[in-house]
Amino acid sequence: MERFDVVILGAGAAGLFAGAEAARRGRRVLVLDHARAPGEKIRISGGGRCNFTNRDLTPANARERFLSENPRFALSALSRFTPTDFIARVDRAGIAWHEKTLGQLFCDGKATQIVSMLTDDLRTGGGDLRLGVAIESVARAGPGFVTQTSAGSVASESVIVATGGKSIPKMGATGIGYRIAESFGLPVTETRAALVPLTLAEQVLGQTVALAGVGLPARVRHGRTSFDEAVLFTHRGLSGPAILQISSYWREGDAITIDLMPGRDIAADLAAMRAEAGRIAIHNALARLMPDRLAQFLVAEAGLSGRLADLGNKALAGLGQAVHGWQVRPVGSEGYRTAEVTLGGVATGALDAKTMAARTQPGLFFIGEVVDVTGWLGGYNFQWAWSSGWAAGQVA
Q: Which of 153, 227, 232, 257 could form a disulfide with 239 if both were Cys (CB 3.0 to 4.6 A apart)?
C-alpha cells in the first residue's frame, strides 16, 4: 500500500491550493480526482476567464457576503489568506487580470492559466496529482487513514476532503464529501442549489415567455436582502446576476420583488412626458425608457391602454408600482444542473475555523464548497476555496 503524509480528495480550486501549500511545507502530498482534467470548474468559470477573487471582500463585510449556519466561521481563514494574498500569487505567476464590476477580478486570458498556476505549484513542491481515480471510501486506520480508490488503497496521516458540492453534475459532482463526513459522525446541514436561475409557474410563463432574452439592470429583493445587478428573462423564468444572488436566500413559496427601473420615478417621468407628447400610446411612452417588449408586458400588468394624455396621475402611479415593485413567486430553480454552487454542507460546528480540521477526527479536514460556507456571486466562492485550502495546507 502506498503511503503519503497527506491525501487530498478533489483536484478543484480548494484541493489543488491546499495540496500546493502542504507540499510547500515538505509534506508528501497526493491529490486524487475522478475527473480526467484538474480544475474543471475553474476552467468554465467567468465565461472561461475565471472570476478568481473579489477585491471588495473585507473582514468587515464577510459575514454579510457568506451564507452559513455560523456566518462568523469563515472569518478566520478569510482574514489570514486574503484576496490581496491571492492576487500576489497570480501576479507572481505572470497572469494578467482586470477588474470588471463590483470588485470582480478576471484573467485577461484563459481560466486555464489559473489551473496551470495551481498544478505547477503542486508539482514544484513535489506533490503528486492523479486523475481518473474514483474515491470509494475513507476509513480510520490507527492514527491515520486508508482511502479506498478505484486504483487501490492509499494510507496517509491526514486526509483533506475537497470534493465540492452537488452543483453541475455533468462535470462529475457527486456529493461524496458529505457521505465521508457522515461516515465519521460529522453533521451535514441541508443542501440546496444556489446561485441558480429561478423558474416560474406555467401561468406566469404564459405572460413572460415573450420576454425571453430581455435583460436590464434591476433591483431584486427578498425580505431585507436586495441586489442591484442585471436580470434576464428566460424561457423557463428568470436569470441574470441579481437573480442568481437572490436565489441563495429564496425558498419555495416565497415571493421576490423586482424594481425594473431602480433609481427612477417612472410615474413622474411619464407625467412629464404626458405634458409634451400626450398623444403617444402608453406602451410606446414606457418603451422610451425600457425595452419595448417589457414595456408592453408591464402596461398590460397595470391594466392600462390608450394614449398617455388620457391617463391620470393615479393610473401612472399604478404603472409605476408595476415597474418598481413587480412581485413574482418562483415555483423552483433550475437545480444543481446549472447551479454555480451548493448551499449548505459539512456543519461548521464540527470543524475548527482556524485549521478546517474535524474537531472529533484528528487529521481529517474539510475545505471549499463541501463546507457549509457559500459566498455571493463574483469571486467570493473561489476566495473561500483559496482561504480554506490555505488554512488546511498549513497544518495537514
A: 232
- For the record, the C-alpha cell of 273 comes out as 412626458
Provide the pairing of β-strand 341-343 with 364-366.
unpaired
- Residues of the chain above pLDDT 90, percent: 97
> Is the predicted pLDDT of residue 310 greater than 90, yes or no?
yes
Cell of 258: 423586482
Number of continuous H segments (helices) and E segments (strands) in the chain: 14, 21
- Whether 390 contacts 21, CB under 8 Å: yes
Give me the amino acid identity at 129.
L
Task: Kindly list the distances between the CA atom of residue 275 and the CA atoms of 266, 272, 320, 322, 376, in Å, as whole numbers in the listed order.
Answer: 14, 6, 17, 22, 44
Instruction: Reply yes or no on whether the pLDDT at 174 is more than 90.
Output: no
Buried/exposed 250-271: b ≥16 CB within 10 Å, e otherwise: beeeeebbbbbbeeeebbebbb
Instruction: Please work out, in degrees rounded to the nearest 5, the angle formed at the alpha carbon of residue 210 by the alpha carbons of 323 and 330.
Output: 65
Residue 280 has pLDDT above 90, yes or no: yes
